[in-house]
Amino acid sequence: MYNARICRFFNCALIATMTLAVVPVSFALTLQDVQRIQNAKAGERHMEFQNAQQRESAERAQQFAEQNRQFQERTRQEQKSFEEWQRRQAQEREEDLRRLRETMAEKRVPKEPACKARDEERSEQLHGEGEQAIPDLTCDEHRAEASH
């Protein structure tokens, strides 16, 4: 029994000594562990911050690309619209010129043989056979003769 008590005492003393010896080492490791954990957390936060910045940058780039695409599409549509307007304007000008030419052709005085024939016809209608016709001053030749 005595031996058992001595053993228990030594066991308790040994355990107490070991515990006291391990506690400071264990505490020092804990401070280093805390610093490592804090550094790791700070590193994680920094990585999260960088990732968030990269995501925001990617989102802004995507938004810019979408806005640029929309702008280019609007520009293409406006260019098509402008080209269509120009084409319509050219067609309208051609149509106006065609109508003007037709109108001028209708009003144009015939060349000399037809002009003389018309003068004779008018003379017969106005004065009868053998009298001279009143010259048609819309004819270039008659205008030239009348000015002399």
Automatic annotation (TrEMBL):
This is Uncharacterized protein. It comes from the Bacteria. Residues 50-67 have a biased composition (Low complexity). Keywords: Signal. Residues 48-148 are annotated as: Disordered. Residues 71-130, 139-148 have a biased composition (Basic and acidic residues). Residues 1-28 form the signal peptide. It comes from Pseudomonas gingeri.
